[in-house]
Amino acid sequence: MTLHYTQLFKDLEQAKTCIFIEFYTIHHDMVGEKLVEVLTKKASEGVEVWVMCDFIANLSTPKKMFRPLEDAGGKVVRVKPYFTHYRSHRKIVSIDQKISYIGGMNIGKQYANMDRVKNPWRDTQIRLEGACTSILNTYFLKDWLCSIKRCDWENTIHYLKEMKQESYEMTSSYCQFIAGGVDTDKEAVKMCYLSMIRSAKKRIRIQSPYFIPDASILDALKTAAASGVEIELMIPGIKASFFLDPVTNYYSGQLLEYGTKVYKYRGYIHAKTMIIDDELCCVGSVNMDIRSLMVDDEVCGVFYENQLVQRYNKIYDHDISECDSYTWDAFRGRDRKERILESIFLPFAPLM
To answer: Active-site residue 161, yes or no?
Structure first.
């Protein structure tokens, strides 16, 4: 198990009142079974356990895996049970409404660095305590209300009312959370990213498993690079998929023309982070692609605490040492097969 899962399971085992979990995927493997085992134990002790996951992304996860949890009193809901490209991609864990997790990690052995192909796997998840957790609780409970029957609303509304009355100790760290999805037409996530990019004066550092931005994000990055802002982009060196990689390489090449540094991680980079001017960092479930920015249900946190930003800078510097540079010459010299694949898949970029 990774350090993340070790800490997560430890926090879950110490829960006293409630556990709220929302993941895109919960795989049917040793990590998924361990999660269900821990949650089943807590539910049998009287802890309220609610689990949400995306219906389409979990088609291969059998319902029987969750049966012990449901028999113990836990509730499991697979959201959006229809075949559209609007998916629930958020990753939120809330424990006793006092501890929260957000980031890029789902539940499965690949996120624990046990995947045979996409290895080593690099991801980012952040553990939070304090007043900021109330916002993530609200996002979860609103999603839960939209996913259960009306006759079951009462208990959820109870938690929302209880949360309003909760008092939290103020800290010196500042953060804000942004959620986007089909429940709003404001494109809040894209607007947040545009605002951060346009605010940069010196440097922008991005990590994402995919780089398929819409025109406004791409233009903002080009403008920043042309204005003298140093831009660093880190994407996987291991192929994500047959159709995503040519499109990611194509858009990376659009930035290379403006002097951007592009790194390919010698493994699979699944982290979704952005650091601006050593002053703020963004961590969440948002990939740098059109689906995450404008279509799927997502959540990300923007953190203004200097010590945390410096920590993520050190992590980024270490990750660079595990990368190979993707240069303008390499992009221009790509073979005919890759150019053909680009021309085939680029029209489908908004659906990827």
So the answer is: no
From the candidates 115, 214, 219, 277, which is the catalytic residue?
Answer: 277
Q: Which residue out of 270, 289, 296, 319 is catalytically annotated?
A: 270
The one-digit pLDDT tens for each residue of the chain (352 residues) are 666 788 999 999 999 999 999 999 999 999 999 999 999 999 999 999 999 999 998 999 999 999 999 999 999 999 888 767 788 899 999 999 889 999 999 999 988 887 777 788 999 999 998 888 888 988 898 888 877 665 566 666 665 556 554 544 555 568 889 988 776 667 899 999 999 999 999 999 999 999 999 999 999 999 999 999 999 999 999 877 767 888 898 999 999 999 999 999 999 999 999 999 989 999 999 999 888 888 889 999 999 988 999 999 999 999 999 999 999 888 888 888 888 877 787 777 666 6
Instruction: Judge whether 143 counts as a catalytic residue.
Output: no
Catalytic site includes residue 270: yes
89 catalytically annotated: yes
Same domain, 125 and 199: no
270 and 302 housed in the same domain: yes
Which CATH number covers residue 306?
A: 3.30.870.10
Domain-located, residue 220: yes
pTM (two decimals): 0.89
Whether 47 and 124 map to the same domain: the answer is yes
The active-site residue, picked from 4, 27, 89, 118, is 89
Beta carbons of 139 and 92 less than 8 angstroms apart:
yes
Q: How many domains, in total, are found in the chain?
A: 2
118 given a catalytic annotation:
no
The answer to whether 91 is a known catalytic residue is yes
Q: Which residues contact 91 (CB under 8 A, 6 or more apart)?
A: 22, 23, 24, 101, 102, 103, 104, 105, 106, 125, 285, 299
Q: Does residue 277 lie in a domain region?
A: yes
Q: Last residue of some domain: 165, 200, 233?
A: 165
